[in-house]
Amino acid sequence: MTTLGFTISFHGPFRVGAAYGRDGIDAALDHDDPLPxxxxxxxMRDAAATLLGGGHPVLAEVFGSPRTASPWAWSSATAPAGxxxxxxNYRVKIDTETHSAAKDQLVLGEQAWPRTAAFTVARAGQAxxxxxxxxxxxxxxxxxxxxxxxxxxxxxxxxxxxIPDDAPVTEEEVARLVALRETxx
Length: 185
Fold this sequence. Notes:
The chain is an alpha+beta fold and about 180 residues long. It has a domain at about 5-10 and about 35-80 and about 115-185: Alpha-Beta Plaits, CATH 3.30.70. The chain has four helices and six strands, in the order E-H-H-E-E-E-E-H-E-H.
């Protein structure tokens, strides 16, 4: 079984919304699982689609499709010694006429800001297919292509860098990925 490890470096706080609310908090985090596996898989899939093109067959092979499950399993991220450093922030929409908070537009949200966190992507079952090396290549490059995660990432939250644990992505790997992208055209 192939297991790939990744380290996330956080350049600022992030927030991935919890599936439940909490009294006094408008946008809560799940303190037990602040950066879940499904979110990591989603941001990596988005990066992979940008790198390969959305219709590339390797994309569905790695991340799954409506017809087939992914042969890879993501773990949730874990911070060293549980150092998630939870905090709160406010977001407010300003009324252009009164220059004050618009009615019902003040939001109290939670955020987390660890220095680093780690997660894995493991091959579930047999790894004997002929495109296994292409899968590993895409996973490594997609992780390196993720620079934002969580909500409000276009507004200053969730800026990150992800590096494979065994070694950073090389120029040779990027060239192989470009060649792989060209095979679908």
